[in-house]
Amino acid sequence: MFRKQSVFTFLQAQIAAFLGGITDYCLMILLTEVFKLHFTFSILISGTVGAIINFSINRFWVFKNQSGYSSPINKQLLKFALVVLGSISLKSFGTLVLQRVFQIDYRIGRLITDSFVSYGFNYPLIKYWVFRANEEQNVTESN
Fold it and tell me: Does the keyword DNA damage belong to this entry (predicted)?
C-alpha cells in the first residue's frame, strides 16, 4: 500500500507540475515572441506564475494528506519560494548555456533543462522539504 500511495502522490505531483509548467512555458513564449522580452526575463516572470499554480495544486490536492492544512501556509510558501528561486535560476542558466554554447533554440533548451530541474531538483525538494509531514504529526495521527 505504501508503494501505491507513493506512486499516486508522484503522479499527482506530475499533474501539478504539468499544469504549472504548461502555463509557465506558454507564457514564456508569449512574453519572448510577442512582447520581445529576453527569454531569461520571460522565464523569471512565467516561472513565477507557473509556481503559484503549482504551489496551489500541491498544497490543496497533492500533499493535502501529508501536511495539509496543519502546516502554516507562510512556512510552506517561504520554502516553496526558495525552491522556485533555485528552479528559475537553474532553468534560466541551463537554457542560456544550451542556447549560447550549443546553439540550441531557447524553446528546446528550456524543455531539456526543465526535465532535469523538475525531476532532480523540484520534486524531491517539494515532497521532502516543502510539504513534508511533521514527524510529531505522524505519531499523533497513528495513535
Answer: no
Mean pLDDT value across the chain? 87
Instruction: Provide the whole-model pTM.
Output: 0.78
Residues 6+ apart with CB under 8 A from 111: 25
State residue 25's pLDDT score: 95
Q: How far is CA 15 from CA 33, 116, 137, in A?
A: 27, 17, 27
Three-state secondary-structure class, residue 58: helix
Residues 6+ apart with CB under 8 A from 75: none
Annotated domain spans of the chain: 2-134
